[in-house]
């Protein structure tokens, strides 16, 4: 009864347009009152949810992303990618995917990536004769790559939602091979479409031009390397490396590129602040929701339920993936991670699924939801940048859906794709 | 929307929202500085202070709550608005006012319970710092109050507006 | 879904240790006893493994009546209940037997009563064994070896002062966060008893255990005063008596668990080493002197020493 109330009120409030964070809070409050618990619990758990040291890296990486976007680091990374693969069929479309592989390394947010990379690439692609729907579709699906490239704040979120016992370094490493796989698969899809539609091919700009752009993009590449090596070698913690990334991005843009005006800096701070508030507040209120799930013993019930219908880990994983895909069509990624981790991670563990592998599957599955209707923030942002209705993008996006699903299936059912690299690096 | 506010805030509430963003942004910058100080003390002075984690958490909740409050005014919180946009304008406004009322109620509860929690732990020392433990709940309470204020403003604007705003 | 509805009152209890840990098992034993003696009118549902939050948060939940019982380490209680610092002072007790005599006797009674000041009822003390340091970097033989190490301590100023006195850098952190903090090198190590080191799996990252044996810091079993007063008088008495009776059960399980853990850790490749105990005693002395300047602590200290 209490469980039905918790989910029912949450779903109802979401449906009538109450933002996720407030719907989580209100549903928890109603349930707490129904259980005859003091309402201060909801406030206390909201505070506790934001009181974990593992969350500190999130706002700092968001801040870094904003600084890179406004200070020219992202632009130069795109420039490099363009020089590298612009001459392949589908040219700029391939650049788009590759730029996400580079840029996604720092922003960690699919929406930031689609606004940053898509904002630069979509107009460029349209100018060079690509159809708008193709430009939008390749951009939004390429944002999936960035979800998995370290550092991914979604993986940090997953680690926190899992109770903080999972190594962030392992999770970051686990995302790398799936991200590369996604890159190759999406580039292949883009190539096939480009060939069928007969898009033109650009000339290779020459080794010299590639080198010039490499030099220009070097500080940005160094930032990605700094973060990854710093954390991996144990020189910095994830949080410290995020703080260093902020200052580094600030110094590069202000002193090396001389691109960051005072006003731009303020806008970067304001942008990062806005995203931080929204994301952290959902994390905090989801913690109350999660507390109630534990209090009402929902994870145990979910394990029992799945035990009754499925008998091996792949059947369980398949059921969870299908469920998450459905949920993901109408939920954003951060709340999906925060709400589903406490329910499904114990199930996954009970069936012997590695929690690191499960995290990658969860993020990939939820990430696909970001580009599906009815609620797909990345798809919406992409369509808005490309100035086409969402329905028009949807008519031709299916090859990218197929590519993403193929990668998801591989990643879900071949654990080694996620677990090989962390084991090698450990 | 936020950026326009940044350039030329209009009215007391816009200034208040800007102040929230400034406080949250400053907290964000301070988090980076505190963490850098920690790296510096560890590698250069070979002695890292015990106050950095608790202080960072205090700054984190400050950034979160003030930015979340400003986000109520800027309509930044993510949600599921498909059904909403399919409805006639009149029904849309009713639901928008309802959502704002929910946010106002939550803000009010955060204000009151946050203050209670802060008072309850005010005489306890926060480990590693000389600050009261209750201070950790102050941003929650203040941010909740501001959230309620901005949400009530929204209720009024939505109900007054001639069309969808 | 909640477990099959028991007809009587079901108290909720939180513990951050996993199922099977002696403290969790002792509360389960309490539940069985209460259920048997009341014919099912009173029992306890335990939430283990920190499902309901960090220790300090469960204390606040209990204070407000959102949770009925919580089992927390004394270190977590040092700042809100300053009198508990005496149980965490370095080298305060001579032996396990001495510590047990103190908490079973008048000093223990006085500390349990002190929890009433903040809406809690002290039900019992559980053992937590002797605490020592472990870390990812090197064996510690003297306080000098601790220089520069960043170590997790419970959220307690007494522990922070002690670690500083030994020459290391303390950082207050939830116990549940220590594993990933060590793995990501946010910290170099921590200190705890051998059973907690084992069950938290922190031995997978921290391979050096040094027998500093610096403090006991027993566990406290606390109840929400609001929930306690909501029970009929007969059940209140039964609950207090059962909690006291569970101490012996817990200690038996504890002694077995400690021995098993030590064997398992040694077999698992953890490097154990003994330390220069007099040097650690000397380094801890200023911390003791400063704490014992508090007249309440000094009075308790004298009564504890009298039991030595
Ligand atoms: Na990323
Ligand atoms: Na979706």
Can you walk me through this structure?
The complex is a heterotrimer of chains A (about 425), B (about 160) and C (about 300). Chain A is mainly α. Chain A has one domain. In chain A, about 80% of the residues lie in helices and about 0% in strands. Chain A starts with a helix and ends with a helix. Chain B has one domain (about 5-160). Helices cover about 75% and strands about 0% of the residues of chain B. Mean pLDDT of chain B is about 90; it is low at about 1-5. Helix content of chain C is about 45%, strand content about 20%. Chain C starts with 8 loop residues before the first strand and ends with a helix. Chain C has a six-stranded mixed sheet. A five-stranded mixed sheet of chain C has the order 2-1-3-10-4, with helices on both faces. Chains in contact: A-B, A-C, B-C. Chains A and B meet through helix 1, helix 2, helix 3, helix 4 and helix 12 of A and helix 1, helix 2, helix 3, helix 4 and helix 5 of B. One sodium ion binds near residues 105 and 149 of chain A. One sodium ion binds near residues 328, 329, 369, 375 and 376 of chain A.
As for the number of domains of chain A, it is 1
Query: Mean pLDDT score of chain A, rounded?
Result: 85
Kindly name the structural category of chain C. Answer: alpha/beta
Question: In angstroms, what separates the terminal alpha carbons of chain C?
Answer: 51 Å
Order of helices and strands of chain A: HHHHHHHHHHHHHHHHHHHHH
How many helices of chain A? 21
Sheet with most strands of chain C? 6 strands, mixed
> Count of DSSP helices of chain C?
12
Strand order of the largest sheet of chain C: 7-6-8-5-9-11
| Oligomeric state of the chains in view | heterotrimer
Report the sheet-strand fraction of chain C.
15-25%
């Amino acid at each position: 009864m209490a469980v039905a109330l918790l989910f029912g009120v949450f779903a109802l409030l979401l449906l009538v347009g109450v933002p996720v964070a407030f719907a989580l809070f209100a549903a928890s409050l109603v349930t707490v009152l129904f259980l005859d618990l003091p309402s201060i619990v909801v406030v206390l758990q909201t505070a506790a949810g934001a009181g974990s040291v593992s969350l500190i890296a999130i706002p700092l990486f968001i801040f870094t992303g904003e600084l890179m976007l406004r200070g020219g680091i992202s632009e130069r990374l795109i420039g490099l990618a363009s020089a590298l693969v612009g001459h392949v069929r589908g040219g700029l479309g391939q650049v788009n995917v590759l730029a996400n592989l580079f840029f996604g390394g720092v922003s960690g947010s699919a929406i930031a990536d689609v606004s940053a990379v898509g904002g630069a690439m979509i107009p460029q692609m349209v100018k060079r004769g690509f159809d708008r729907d193709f430009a939008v579709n390749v951009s939004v699906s390429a944002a999936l790559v960035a979800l998995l490239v370290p550092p991914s704040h979604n993986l940090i979120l997953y680690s926190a939602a899992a109770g903080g016992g999972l190594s962030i370094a392992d999770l970051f490493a686990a995302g790398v091979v799936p991200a590369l796989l996604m890159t190759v698969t999406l580039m292949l899809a883009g190539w096939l479409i480009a060939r069928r539609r007969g898009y033109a091919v650009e000339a290779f700009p020459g080794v010299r031009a590639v080198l010039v752009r490499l030099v220009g993009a070097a500080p940005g590449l160094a930032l990605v390397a700094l973060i990854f090596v710093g954390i991996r070698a144990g020189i910095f913690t994830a949080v410290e490396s995020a703080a260093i990334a902020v200052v580094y991005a600030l110094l590069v843009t202000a002193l090396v590129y001389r691109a960051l005006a005072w006003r731009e800096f303020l806008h970067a701070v304001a942008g990062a602040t806005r995203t931080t508030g929204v994301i952290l507040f959902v994390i905090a209120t989801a913690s109350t929701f999660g507390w109630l799930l534990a209090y009402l013993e929902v994870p145990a019930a979910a394990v029992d339920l799945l035990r009754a219908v499925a008998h091996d880990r792949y059947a369980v994983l398949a059921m969870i993936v299908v469920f998450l895909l459905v949920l993901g069509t109408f939920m954003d990624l951060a709340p999906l991670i925060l709400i589903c981790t406490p329910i499904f991670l114990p199930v996954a563990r009970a069936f012997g699924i590695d929690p690191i592998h499960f995290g990658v599957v969860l993020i990939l599955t939820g990430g696909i939801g970001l580009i599906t209707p009815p609620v797909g923030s990345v798809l919406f942002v992409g369509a808005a940048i490309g100035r086409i209705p969402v329905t028009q993008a949807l008519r031709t996006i299916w090859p990218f859906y197929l590519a993403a699903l193929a990668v998801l299936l591989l990643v879900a059912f071949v654990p080694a794709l996620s677990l090989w690299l962390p084991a090698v690096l450990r | 929307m936020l950026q326009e506010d940044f350039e030329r805030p209009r009215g007391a509430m816009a200034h208040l929202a800007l102040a929230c963003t400034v406080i949250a942004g400053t907290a964000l910058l301070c988090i980076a500085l505190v963490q850098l100080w920690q790296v510096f003390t560890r590698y250069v002075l070979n002695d890292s202070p015990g106050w950095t984690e608790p202080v960072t958490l205090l700054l984190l909740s400050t950034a979160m709550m003030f930015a979340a409050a400003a986000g109520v005014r800027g309509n930044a919180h993510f949600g599921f608005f498909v059904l909403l946009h399919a409805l006639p304008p009149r029904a849309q406004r009713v639901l928008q006012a309802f959502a704002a009322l929910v946010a106002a109620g939550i803000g009010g509860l955060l204000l009151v319970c946050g203050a209670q929690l802060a008072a309850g732990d005010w005489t306890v020392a926060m480990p590693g710092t000389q600050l009261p433990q209750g201070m950790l709940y102050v941003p929650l309470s203040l941010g909740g109050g501001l959230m309620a204020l901005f949400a009530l403003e929204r209720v009024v604007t939505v109900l007054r507006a001639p069309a969808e705003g | 879904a909640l477990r099959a509805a028991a007809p009587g009152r079901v108290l909720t209890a939180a513990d951050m240790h996993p199922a099977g840990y002696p403290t969790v098992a002792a509360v389960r034993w309490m539940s069985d006893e209460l259920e048997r003696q009341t014919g099912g009118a009173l029992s306890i549902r335990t939430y283990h493994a920190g499902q309901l939050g960090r220790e300090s948060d469960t204390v606040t939940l209990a204070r407000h009546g959102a949770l009925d019982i919580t089992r927390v380490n004394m270190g977590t209680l040092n700042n809100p209940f300053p009198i508990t610092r005496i149980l965490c002072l370095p080298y305060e007790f001579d032996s396990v037997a001495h510590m047990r005599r103190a908490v079973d006797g008048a000093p223990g009674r006085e500390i349990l009563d002190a929890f009433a000041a903040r809406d809690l009822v002290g039900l019992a003390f559980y053992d937590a064994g002797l605490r020592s340091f472990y870390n990812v970097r090197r064996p510690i033989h003297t306080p000098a070896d601790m220089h520069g190490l960043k170590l997790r301590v419970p959220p307690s100023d007494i522990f922070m002062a002690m670690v500083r006195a030994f020459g290391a850098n303390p950082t207050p952190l939830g116990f549940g966060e220590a594993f990933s903090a060590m793995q990501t090198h946010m910290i170099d190590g921590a200190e705890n008893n051998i059973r907690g080191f084992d069950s938290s799996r922190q031995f997978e990252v921290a391979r050096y255990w040094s027998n500093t044996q610096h403090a006991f810091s027993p566990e406290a079993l606390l109840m929400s005063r609001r929930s306690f007063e909501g029970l009929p008088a007969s059940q209140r008495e039964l609950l207090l008596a059962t909690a006291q009776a569970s101490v012996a059960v817990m200690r038996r399980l504890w002694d077995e668990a400690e021995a098993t853990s030590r064997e398992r850790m040694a077999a698992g490749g953890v490097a154990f080493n003994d330390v220069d105990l007099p040097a650690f005693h000397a380094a801890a002395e200023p911390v003791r002197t400063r704490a014992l300047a508090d007249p309440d602590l000094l009075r308790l200290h004298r009564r504890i020493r009298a039991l030595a």
